[in-house]
Amino acid sequence: MFLFYVVLYHTAGDSLYYEKMYTRENCLLIYQMWQEDLSKEVKTLLGNPPNTNFAIYDVTEGVSDGYYDEKVLSNFEKHIIKKIRNDKEFVSKVMEWFKEKLDPLEKIWRVGKALKTREDLIGFYHQTVLASAGLDVAYFTPKIGAISNKDKRLAMNMRKRSDDFTPANDRIITQTLERLYPKLGKYSQCISIGELKANKVPGIESLKERYQHYIYFNHKLFTNISFNSFVSKFHLSVKKEKIIQTNEIKGQVGMKGIVVGKVRVVIKKENIKDLKIGEVLVAPMTTMNFLPAMRKAAAIVTDEGGVTCHAAIVARELKKPCIIGTRIGTKLLRTGDYVKVDATKGIVRKISLGVLKQTTKKNLRPIVKTFYPQKSNNKIRPEFILWFKDLKKKDIPTVGGKGANLGELFNHFLIPDGFCITVNSYKRFLEKNGLDIVIQNLLDTLDVNNNYQLEKVSKKIRALILEKPFPKDLEKLIKENYSRLKNKKVAIRSSATTEDLPTASFAGQQDTYLNIKGEKSVFNAVQRCWASLFTARAIYYRAENKFEHENVLISVVVQEMIDADYAGVMFTIDPVNKKYILIETVKGLGESLVSGQVTPNSYFIHKFDEKIMEKVENFNLNEKLVHKVAVLGRKIELHYKCPMDVEYAIKDNKIYILQARPITTL
Question: What does the domain layout of the chain look like in residue ranges?
Fold first, then answer.
């Protein structure tokens, strides 16, 4: 038996009502950033909105449980809705302002180095405070129903650009604090902005005590007080949890399987390296930093997430049993506990050592799936640009998996027109700027299991690619082909030669940019796609799956945008139950589905008669369209002779195929 949390309502007052939103690891300056009062500039821009800074951060050794008041957030959302209805230019003005504030931050993120002076850090902090107001609007806008698709897309694009906002800022701040105050080490993350400005940093003993536990609330720092005492003292209402006894916790299945093993709870980044082969990884959520641990783990259990979250996607790639969304796994399980992870039912059950000894060794082995590269007999074609109509699936070495699949389908299905900037263009860009040798030297000496080194090399390579100019002849060629498109608003998608293969999808490791318009924006997006070949996750995956870095190239797809009424993803065999066709659909662009910000309509459909066996609907959708999507899915699967993952868009009852790739996680 072990302890289980049951949600109850605890009221110590009637003003604000707080509920836990997440668990994160950040420095004090990040928590202060989110609670700063709005500046006059921001108030004018947003029309004097209500403050959203009444959060409680209960922080132990740098890890915070963040509590927010839903009423406060709701009032802010209502204010934004009102502004949008009264001012048609509101979203575009705020997003343009947000972009202006975000651009200098992104440049610092790309370099990835600590700032040089205390003044630089204070300036960086204030820039993040300003930009955070735009992020709030970008977050709320796509959730609002009564706005145009144009405004939704604009906000979604900015939100995607700022996905790394908090962790990237936290990395720069903590690196700089440790550089400025080397004797304080990790305890420097507890320095406040007030202490930084006054240049009166506490001694190491005071910071050590603060590091053990503090609460940040309403612009004030509280130490030497427990969370329960704090709640009572200030008469706050908090959603509390009462403990009862049970022997299991439940969540959602991310990847099926059953494993018995020893628990390793990982909440802090510095503890990722502690996980041993065959242990069960238990974490609030996972990011790319967790990849080495996820590969060694026998199973994965998280507090947060759904079937499209990072943990679930990677678990399916690695064939690891995975249960997500338990809410309380990290609260109830302890490192060293023995558990049975039944990811066929979504149950984690604590077991005794006696039961463990009766379990066969097979149950304790980590399940590792490695995709060894298959040599292709197809050669790289000589062109720098190739249109979809001139491509087949055999052209993966020239235009990557995504480009080759679009070419293969172009003459059989309704595909928005476009072209591929081939791997030859990428190679020419590197060679012309002398980057090919520099990048290879950086990768040759890299230990991908050293997270710090991996992140550092990744940032350096991406910064080098983004700062170099296009060769003039290549620039002219891309301009000429872009001018031939009927619709100048395009999607720019990465298409690596290791992506969307029959044996390994490597999906989501490179970048995509939507609603790109104008030559300058196209070139910028192309460079970002090239740079995304060297994210830490992509480098790690290639190394672990035996792909030589120098043999992995990248093409870029330039495809006319569809201003979709509906969009979504279809698995011709659903990846968890492996029984039906799974179709997920959202209103507008599919980006809101991929980002996990909108709950889709889900349909489980019989493969042979297209009968809907099960559905979950959040909006009305003509089921004839669902049947048409399913029929297309079957045709694409028959064409490829394997289960397929298909992205589609629906405009004026026409169904357009945007991407298709073999499912490799079955």
Answer: 7-239, 247-364, 385-560, 566-662
* Confidence check: pLDDT of 145 > 60: no
Asked whether 568 and 600 are in contact (CB, 8 A), the reply is yes
Closest CA to 77 of 161, 155, 15: 155
Q: Which CATH class is domain 566-662?
A: alpha beta
Q: What is the C-alpha separation between 623 and 270, in angstroms, rounded?
A: 49
* Statement: 247-364 belongs to CATH 3.50.30.10: yes
Rounded to whole angstroms, the Cα distance separating 486 from 560 reads 8
Distances from the Cα of 397 to the Cαs of 420, 423, 504, in angstroms? Answer: 12, 8, 15
Residue 242 has pLDDT above 90, yes or no: no
Distance between CA atoms of residues 592 and 360, nearest Å: 44
Strands (E), 266-417: 280-283, 299-302, 322-324, 338-342, 347-350, 385-387
- Per DSSP, the three-state class of 184 is helix
- For residue 47, is pLDDT > 50? yes
Q: What is the DSSP letter of 49?
A: P
- Note whether 555 and 420 are within 8 A (CB): yes
Per-residue pLDDT, averaged over 409-425, amounts to 94
Would you give the DSSP letter of residue 145? S
**For the stretch 375-386, what's the b/e string if a residue is b when 16 or more beta carbons lie within 10 angstroms of its beta carbon?**
eeeeebbeebbb
Angle between helices 118-140 and 90-111 (to 10 degrees): 140
**Integer Cα distance of 557 and 388 in angstroms:** 9
pLDDT for position 118: 95
pLDDT at 9 over 50: no
At 586-600, the pLDDT tens digits run 887 766 555 444 567
Contact 490, 420 (CB under 8 A): no
Using an 8 Å Cβ cutoff, are 311 and 286 in contact?
yes
Q: What is the pLDDT of residues 179-199, one digit of tens each?
A: 999 999 999 999 999 999 999
Q: Are 239 and 10 in contact (CB under 8 A)?
A: yes
Pairing of strands 654-662, 644-651: antiparallel
The pLDDT of residue 389 is: 94
The closest of 228, 224, 211, 334 to 282, measured between CA atoms, is 334
Residue type at 567? A
Identify the residue whose tokens are 């536990």.
Answer: 213
CA distances to 379, 426, 463, 493, 542 from 548, rounded to whole Å, are 17, 17, 22, 23, 7
pLDDT, tens digit, 9 for 90 and up, residues 472-525 = 999 999 999 999 999 999 999 988 886 544 444 444 456 778 888 899 989 989
| CATH number corresponding to 385-560 | 3.30.1490.20
Structure-token pair, residue 368: 């590792």
pTM attached to this predicted model = 0.59
Judging by DSSP bridges, how do beta strands 385-387 and 418-421 pair with one another? antiparallel
63-69 and 17-25 strand pairing: antiparallel
